Amino acid sequence: MFMRDAVFAICAILAGAAGLWTTFDYLPKARHFPFAMCLIILVSGIILLIQAFRNRPQPQPATGVAEGAGGTGPSTPLPNPNLSQAGFWRGSLPFGAVLIVWALAVSYGAGYLVPGFIAGAVLMVIAGARGPLKIVLGSAAVVLFCFVMFYIVFHTRIPEMPAVRQLVAPLRNLF
Amino acid sequence: MDAILQGFYVLSDPFVLGFLTTGVVLGLLIGAIPGLNDNITFAVFIPFVFGMEASHALALMVGVYCSTSVGGAIPAIMLKVPGTASSLLTSIDGNAMTRQGKAPQALSVAITSSVVGGLTSSVVLIFFAPLLAAFALRFGPAENVALGILGLASVVGMMSGSIFKGLIAAAFGLLISSVGYHYGQDRLTFDNFYFYDGVPLVPLLVGLFGITAVLELVEEDVAERLRGNEPGQRQKDVRAVILDSKMVKRLWPTWLRSSAIGNIIGVIPGAGALMAIYISYDQARRHHETKYQNDPDEPKFGEGAVEGVAAPEAANNAVVASSMVPLLSLGIPGNSVSALFIAAMQIKGLAAGPLLFQRNIDIVWMIILAFFAANLMMGPIAYITVRWLISLIYALPRSVLATAVALLCLTGAYAVESTMFGVWVALVFGIVGYGFRKAGVPIAPVILAVILGERIESSLYNALQLSGGNWFTFIDPLGHPISLLLLVVSAGFLASPLIKRWRTSRAR
Question: DUF1468 domain: which residues (chain A) (predicted)?
Fold first, then answer.
């Protein structure tokens, strides 16, 4: 809790300060509003940091009995602190990283379907899918669904390679 | 009367009715899947709005919005896992009833209560939205500034946790709204050509709601697996039953009381469904304890009381349509879902607020009547589909769900302007939103501020110009009494958590 609030407060202070620095040179009428918002972020961040330090948990003297050191009651396993972090390190972090890699691949002209299929398969593995057939079919279904809905049914543009576009042009004309 | 007929004419179009029905079914399904909610659905759906007619898109959204909370009650009752946040309290008594073998009765109470709550709020919307809009037409720039501040203050002041986190979130949103070329200056564009028109709204919403939610979903599932549990498991065959007249007679007072609470809270911007369900649940508990205190056959509250399901379900659906009152009449979103509703309207060139009643009265009444129709059709559809929903939703692998939502969100962000810029905006704001959630900072003030920001800033300058630069114009009791009143109420909203904390510390 303390670390979480302190880190957020420091980020807010830095963002507020950077915003003040950036908006300071703007024309007067254009400056007032963003400048005031940056000031609110900065001041709120400072207050939040002070609050976080004031509410910081004080170290307590050890009161528990270590395992095997005596004590007659049944031992209760302590919650594993690493497990609560594991969801982030093994879940959301690699998931987010794959999305960024997918966006980079599409940006650099790799088309939509192929990077989408590969990224979809990796995302499914990260999200807990097991079994190669399930992953391949699931990923293919998801990418094709997106492609059909956006490109063929709703006629929105998709960054697909020209060869694939030509291939599905007759389908698109149906809608 | 002509306006109502115009709205009815638009709604009676078979396609509009078809989209409304599809929305109701979709909302039930989405609400029933733990991890998905109406926010994510709207975030995924908004890019599709570009390719649809306004009436079709809005009808679909009304359908989804009305039925999501009913869908959320299904896993809450069956598994004690609320499908949406608004089904949080339903899970207590609802799941206790399931464990007592009364799942069909619990499901029926949830569905019927939701329909009653939804219908009462539709009536509130029909009567209050036009009245409030007519009143709001008298608002000048000073009142508009005060109204915008009231909307933000109510969201920041009513949330739990630190008020300063809420202030940072609101200021961050207002700062984002100021990006772009305004008042002869390119502000916070970092010389990027794409930012000159401001931060694109749809990718921003897709990122803040869709990507953030998917990252959280994956994190929870991975942690759950490491604990040895498999998230989302298949359920046995369960159906809903029609409530008998004795039960209906017993639940009427709870329905009326909870619907009234939901309607009052729904109209206040930012108060949200959670506050409504907590208050109505507490009220129902008090009445239940007084009435059944000496009845040994009656389950206690929290241990399978039917009122414990009826109260939160009636209240959460009563919030739905009543939260559209400030949106349609004042242009102020009542909660994050209605903020996404505004975004969809903006995409179709419809500006929510009093002018909407002058320029697009047919669409306004179509939306209002669609809420009524959606609530009417929700009951039978929910009764018919509940068995099918229970078996289907738990068969859908969560890994496929997370991947599908992520790719739909990013593809939608691309499709808005056909550039990768939208995808990067969605990714950046997805990561920012995820960071906010990890830090315990609410996202709702950000999105409300982004939507209200431009209006607040332009009205502020207009008001100052009209008053010759006099800042006291906003609190002038003779010139702008409404503005003064709104600012006093805003100050009250902001001060209330501080006063509450001060009282608590004094009591200690």
Answer: 8-159
Contact residues on chain A for B440, CB-CB shorter than 8 A: 4-5, 8
Interchain contact A105–B (C-beta under 8 A): no
Query: What DSSP string runs through B8-29?
Result: HHHHTSHHHHHHHHHHHHHHHH
ipTM for the assembly: 0.84
Residue B187, beta-bridge partner list: B180
Q: Do B174 and A37 touch (CB under 8 A)?
A: yes
CB contact under 8 A, A8 and B221: no
Rounded Cα gap, residues A7 and A55, in angstroms? 14
pLDDT at A49 over 90: yes
Task: Quote the pTM value.
Answer: 0.76
Of A11, A38, A45, nearest to B175 by CB-CB distance is A38
Surface-to-core class of residue A134, CB atoms within 10 Å of its CB (0-12 exposed, 13-18 middle, 19+ buried): middle
Which residues 140-169 of A are in CB contact (within 8 Å) with B?
141-143, 145-146, 149-150, 153-159
Query: Does the distance separating the beta carbons of A23 and B218 come in below 8 Å?
Result: no
Residue with tokens 């960054």: A159
The b/e string for B155-176 (b: 16+ C-beta within 10 A; e otherwise) is bbbbbeebbbbbbbbbbbbbbb
**Facing residue for B185 by CB, picked from A27, A120, A124:** A27
Q: Tell me the pLDDT of chain B averaged across its residues.
A: 83
Q: Tens digit of pLDDT for each residue in A125-136?
A: 998 888 899 899
Any idea what DSSP says for residue A97? Answer: H
| Alpha-carbon torsion angle B9, B11, B15, B19, nearest 10 | 170
Report the sign of the C-alpha dihedral through residues A98, A100, A102, A108, in that order.
negative
What's the pLDDT tens digit per position in B115-168? 999 999 888 888 877 777 777 667 788 888 888 888 788 777 766 667 889 899
Nearest-by-CA chain B residue for A19: B188
Measured between alpha carbons, how far is residue A136 from residues A15, A69, A108, A126, A142 in Å?
43, 52, 24, 14, 10
Query: Is A54 an 8 Å CB contact of chain B?
Result: no
pLDDT > 70? residue A76: no
CB contact under 8 A, B226 and A87: yes
Residue at token pair 């209006």: B455
pLDDT at B31 over 90: no
Q: Give yes or no for residue A111 having a pLDDT over 50.
A: yes
Q: Which residue of B has its CA nearest to A90?
A: B222
